[in-house]
Amino acid sequence: DDDRARSAHALPRLGAMGGLLATLRCSNVGGAADVMECIRHRDAETLGAILRARPSLARRSLFCGMGFSALHYACAAASANGGSSAVVCCLLAAGARPGARDARGRTPLMLAARAGDAEVARVLMATRRANTRALDGCARSCVHYAAAAGRAEAVALLLDPEALRMSGDEGLIPPNLVPDTRGFSSWIDARSEGGVTALHLAALGGHVETLWILLASGAEPTCTTYGDLAVLFSPNPSTGDYLMLSGSTPAHYAVMGISDVRAAQCLRLLVSAGGQLDAPHDDGRAG
């Protein structure tokens, strides 16, 4: 097709850029596999050349029927060490949609938050089209994703008033948060399926710094889960999801963590913020 022909003609002009591009064959240049390879190697220069020839790749789903775009992939492949912002900027310049959702309702910002790359998250929010307040198919926000993975810097960014103003989501800025029907703010204490909050997730993972940031930002330490069982997702797909009893507080989640030392630290923080160690589950059993 015309896009592929333009890609092939663009190759010789790249000259000394070499690197990854030297391994690509003209017959396959500009495909989704090449875009993914550039993203994995954080090769923004080569990616830019491919997208100039085939800009539609910036908006196309990489996997048929999954809605997982190149921008989703770049954000998922990012890391807390940074280095992916140039690739993300390249995709955005080519027309990638920062508020796009995949088949599970996830946005690129959710994946960047889970990866812990605060710079990529900042770039997405600066577009004012990242849909900061979006929820995935299980009603989890980008703050849930960051907290579950213990990404303290990303959590701090997502709760930062200036960053929220920059993103166009002034309505999320304290003290202008509108309480939900349970009395908790609709942002920092937003509840996913079963009533799980970001604070629950940080406590379960023993993410002390993330927990501290949430509490310092006004997260409610006594909020409880509801329903027969609260399904709690794990940031590590290999570990599977967790099932927790209804009526569980973040303190209940903390004692279920893998580290006794971190659990003790989390419990001290929760108690200092008003949490209770003897609060029972809905069935009357104490945690």
TrEMBL record:
Keywords: ANK repeat, Repeat
Residue spans crossing the bilayer: none
Organism taxonomic ancestry: Eukaryota, Viridiplantae, Prasinodermophyta, Prasinodermophyceae, Prasinodermales
SMART domains on file: ANK (SM00248)
Cited SUPFAM superfamilies: Ankyrin repeat
Superkingdom of origin organism: Eukaryota
The keyword Kinase is assigned to this record: no
One Pfam family from the record: Ank_2
UniProt name for this protein: ANK_REP_REGION domain-containing protein
PANTHER family to which the protein is assigned, alphabetical: ANKYRIN REPEAT-CONTAINING (PTHR24123), PROTEIN HOS4 (PTHR24123:SF33)
ANK repeats: 104-125, 194-226
InterPro entries named in the record: Ankyrin_rpt, Ankyrin_rpt-contain_sf, Multifunctional_ANK_Repeat
Annotated organism of origin: Prasinoderma singulare
